[in-house]
Task: structure prediction
Amino acid sequence: MRANGDPGDTVAQFAAMACQAQLHVAGLEQAQARRAIDAAAAEVRRIEAKYSRYRADSVLSQINASAGSGAAVAVDQETAGLLDFAASLHAQSGGLFDITSGVLRRAWDFGAARLPAQAQIDALLPRVGWQRVRWDGPAAGGRRIELPLAGMELDFGGIGKEYAADRAAAVLHQAGVRHGFVNLGGDIRIVGPRPGGVPWALGIQHPRRDDATIASVQLGEGALATSGDYERYFEVPGEAGGQRYCHILDPRSGWPVRHWRSVSVVAPLCLAAGALTTIAMLLQDAALDFLRSQNVAFLAVDAAGSIVHEGL
Amino acid sequence: MAATDPRIPPASAAAERRRAGGVLLAALALPGLATPAAHADLAPGHSFVEFKQLHYQDAQSGLRRIHVDAPSLYVLTPLGANWSLAGSAVLDIVSGATPRYYTSVSGASRMFDRRIGEDATVTYYRPRSEFSFSASHSKEDDYESYGVSGDARFSTEDNNTTFNLGAGASIDTIKPVNHIVDTAHKHTFDFIAGVTQALSPDDIAQVQYGYSFGHGYFNDPYKLFDNRPAKRDQGAFTVRWNHQFERWGSTLRTNYRYYFDTYHIHAHTLQLEWVQPLGQAVSISPSLTYYTQRAANFYFDPPNGNQDRFPAIPPNSYSSLDQRLAAFGGITAGGRIDWDISHHWSTDLKGEYHEERPAWRLIGQGSPALYPFRYVAIEFGLSYRF
Result:
């Protein structure tokens, strides 16, 4: 996604959370803008370190390492909030949004572009399912989580980057920023409109052409997030141009979803927008009714390339 | 600013209708995310123009009396990131019969008047605070009023609590066409202080106290035997509570107001309003208000319940036969429909039926021998946001 800006705006770009991060600040002296950006970038890195699956000392790695041990892991308040949120998404999506489904990546190697054997997927499916997790959350008076089966693992894909975007925006706001936005690999949270109250013009990535946008959205507040079948995928040649296998996997079957090329959602929080795009991808043909029930503006591109949008 | 009519800052009706879905509500439960967008500290991001047309007709003793047609225009525009400028103008065209004393028909005099009012407000927005200054002017044939006021609002770090303070002054000049006095003035100073507190994601409460000091000419020059004290202080204490019902997406708005003044009028108002969204763009809001007041200590009842006879008023004593200073109760049933036609356009239609009767007073007896008073008001609004 791209956004407009003015000369004189302070912009920082860096790699974080396996994507390109951009912090855009307007209406402040450069020195103050830099201080705000440094604080926000530090917040993004803090969250990345805390929830990265690739770091042995991360909170998620500790939980995953204890899977099947019979021991529950105590978590801090921030992690408990995110786990509660994930539990709520699991319930609201009828079990489709599932932070235990990352284990299916062992069968799906998108780099190798190779279809897994059904037996591989079948072997992993018993380890997928939030309903199997023993989560004694704040609502139940505790903060302890236990993954009952060895090999189960949690993955904050679909909420971690979005949470970081919201937190970075909050840090910018605390540092005095009133005009600007945070863009973490296309998950955008607005801090405030451009000076003068003019909204930012944000582009939505074309799901089939890297160099094009498919729509422009004017946002002065809130967040915009997009999920698509173009982020990590491979194609198997065949009839009708072949079949695309994307990284969004249905936790019931273990196979990728096919209905939408991409779904974009505008919501007050990036965390909500991002979760809604992922749930919409997973719900496939039931996505639009769900998005309408959530009272959000959205734009979806179906498998044939047709655009459906409401409120945008 | 008016000390006697404090209001909860109007949450955008459209925003209220766009109810948060379950996923957003779950996300909002996480701390430290919502601060920047949920509470815009800075100037409004859009300009706003609104036209309203009010039609009012009251009636008593089976006769139509005052009739008002009032078109008004309101404009709000941001000026840079930290300032906004708002202005409004209203034209009231009033005609009809106003009773000279009590509610009697025989003494009614015909009247026609035109009032032009205009005001402007400039507001400066800071993070977690805002400051505004307003000036207003209103003129009709025999009456002219100038007012200024300043208001400030402060929010706590978590934006759950907002304090407001305000002060205002006005000077009114009365030149009655009957020359009962030549030129008379009335001066008013008013103050207001309040706290608004978010009690839960679904509940918001507000407490406001306003007090005004007035001195000067308070008589109604067109009423017989109207001789009121030249000093009138008024106080009002208001408690509001709004609750949202997640299940239906509706909002219940309640408020109670206790009013008192140095004329010894004490009044209680209880108001209930139910805001019910119907789909994304439309909401309907029925409301019911009950009002009850005690009479001013210089209000004279008609002798033996006969409005055609004058009461015996001791010389040099204060007196009024104005039924607005009598003891009575009133009920208002109203409703409004709001429709967001598009991102830019919205419209609303309000209707109100009001009736007051002495017998409806809640505490103590109502004033005897007054006829029921009724009015109907209908207001149409159309606004454009850009």
About this structure: Chain A touches chain B at residues 27, 81-82, 84-85, 88-89, 92, 163, 166-167, 169-170, 172-174, 176, 178-179, 190-193, 195-199, 220-223, 267-269, 271-272, 275-276, 279, 293-296 (CB under 8 Å). The mean pLDDT of chain A is 88.
